[in-house]
Amino acid sequence: MRRYLGIWILLLGLAACTSGPGVNLASKACMVHKGLSTRQEVERYLGPPARVERLPDGREIWIYYHLQEDALARIPGLGEKWGRKEVEVLRITFSGDQVVDCIYYVTRPSS
User: Residues of 8-32 as b/e, b for ≥16 C-beta within 10 angstroms?
Assistant: First the structure.
């Protein structure tokens, strides 16, 4: 019985931990300004995008994302049920060389 209690205490401790510091798209999104920021500035701030979409009207959308998961989410068998995963997404739309839109949101990954 004590052995199981120790395991649960360990699991609860792991659940309280988060993955180490990583990309923080929210703070980086604050550096992008509609109508002011250029394509070169965005690439300097954020690096190359994870995905690029080209629209028929000539606009281009750069998409950045980062998966955040707590320690419990990485435990096989337990993570699917009790772990927490979120995806930060940053979508930046360019018209020519200028930023015309910048959207940041957080969502859950699809299973």
Answer: eeeeeeebeeeeeeebebeebbeeb
